[in-house]
Specification:
Blueprint lengths: L3 E4 L7 E4 L4 E8 L5 E8 L4 E8 L11 E9 L3 E11 L9 E9 L1
Parallel strand pairs: 1-3, 2-8
Antiparallel strand pairs: 3-6, 4-7, 5-6, 7-8
Length: 108
């Protein structure tokens, strides 16, 4: 059993299967110099628990450059869960997000 299941933009809107104890890693690109960042809107606990949130590449050297953002969720209970992320600017709280990402998670 692979302890790490990876998901990216191509899994948006889909369902992934995890076994108890596995980790789900979501990796998405963001352009922090534009003010846009990914934010966790919802993650279903206690089925999956967010254990890590951070960037994995160095800061962009030019405006508009991108970095990879990763979240690790640990499957700690059997059941169904969902993860919802939104790509927005913190100062535009009342605006719709520029992008959204969602994933259904089935833990067995």
């Amino acid at each position: 059993m692979n302890p790490l299941i990876e998901a990216g933009e191509s899994e948006n809107g889909k369902q992934v299967e995890l076994r108890l104890g596995q980790t789900l890693r979501i990796t998405l690109s963001e352009a922090p110099t534009t003010g846009y960042r990914w934010y966790v809107r919802q993650s279903t606990q206690p089925v999956i628990l967010l254990v890590r949130d951070g960037t994995v590449s160095s800061p962009p050297q030019r405006a508009g450059g991108t970095v990879k953002r990763q979240w690790d969720f640990h499957a700690q209970e059997v059941g169904m869960a969902s993860v919802e992320l939104e790509y927005s600017r913190v100062w535009e709280r009342h605006a719709l997000p520029a992008r959204e990402f969602s994933l259904s998670v089935h833990v067995t």
